[in-house]
Specification:
Elements (H helix, E strand, L loop, with lengths): L9 H11 L1 E6 L18 E6 L12 E5 L7 E7 L2 E6 L19 E2 L6 E2 L23 E2 L1 E4 L4 E6 L8 E7 L5 E9 L5 E6 L7 E3 L20 E8 L6 E10 L2
Length: about 260
């Protein structure tokens, strides 16, 4: 369906953007055209979608990066186990809760700096032949469901307690020039930083757009958080007659 930008109906316009809302990762060097039409984006686990080529350390098996997405919890550790296999680990040591470092090829391990517990590339604590831990930590690191699409190079990480969806989209007003201002409502987690993305079609990479916190003010803000918590309302100016909006969480690559 192709709508005229000067004469859109509210029902048709909102329908197009509801069909296009979904969750994607955005952040330094990690944005990519990942959207696909969906029927709904109700509450559920968040999915971080990362383009592996954005991180040189992940180019080969044994590569490891740590990514922070909420500033008061330990980062995720993403390890490339094989050509087509990645594993995402909770980096909290199971001994005393310290943050385990990334995987180091030369030592063939991930090591906790507090008491020296060692884990393999899949987050398993080192054990003896009988299966007993040889480390201060007695248990393996926690894992997140991780999928890899070799065609697109996208690693998808499922975070059970992270909401990355748009609750609703509505049209509070239409300007004199025929451009609509849209109201987007989405859940925000304290400590995380979000961006709102727009793309006119599925072949165009999403771009970060600016928003306003009121229906009438100039849309000149680019990030949400880290102090936001609960449902957040953003007002954005619609562009063209067709498009897709998404909410993304900004990841920080830990040196």
């Amino acid at each position: 369906m192709n709508l005229s930008p000067t004469d859109p109906t509210r029902r048709e316009w909102v329908k197009q953007f509801i069909l296009g809302t979904t969750a994607v990762l955005c952040g330094s060097g990690a944005s990519s055209p990942l959207l696909a039409e969906v029927l709904s984006t109700g509450p559920g686990p968040g999915v971080l979608r990362i383009k592996s080529s954005s991180f040189p350390a992940l180019a080969n098996p044994g590569g490891s990066v740590q990514l922070l997405f909420i500033n008061y919890i330990a980062p995720l550790t993403l390890n490339r186990v094989g050509a087509d296999r990645f594993i995402t680990l909770d980096s909290v040591c199971t001994h005393a809760g310290c943050t385990v470092g990334r995987f180091i090829v030369s030592s063939n391990s991930m090591r906790c700096p507090c008491h020296g517990s060692r884990y393999d590339i899949e987050g398993r604590v080192f054990r003896d032949a009988a299966g007993n831990s040889t480390e201060p930590a007695g248990d393996d690191l926690g894992r997140y469901e991780t999928r890899f699409d070799a065609t697109s190079g996208i690693v998808s990480i499922v975070i059970p307690d992270l909401s990355l969806h748009i609750e609703s989209i509505s049209v509070p007003q239409q300007g004199e020039n025929g451009r609509l201002r849209l109201k987007l409502v989405f859940p925000a987690t304290y400590g995380a930083v979000y961006e709102i993305n727009y793309q006119p079609d599925l072949n165009t990479p999403p771009q970060v757009i600016k928003y306003s916190t009121t229906a009438n003010d100039l849309a000149n803000q680019s990030t949400v958080g880290p102090e936001a918590s609960g449902n957040f309302t953003a007002y954005v100016d619609a562009t063209g007659s067709w498009g897709f909006f998404s909410v993304g969480v900004v990841l920080t690559d830990i040196p």
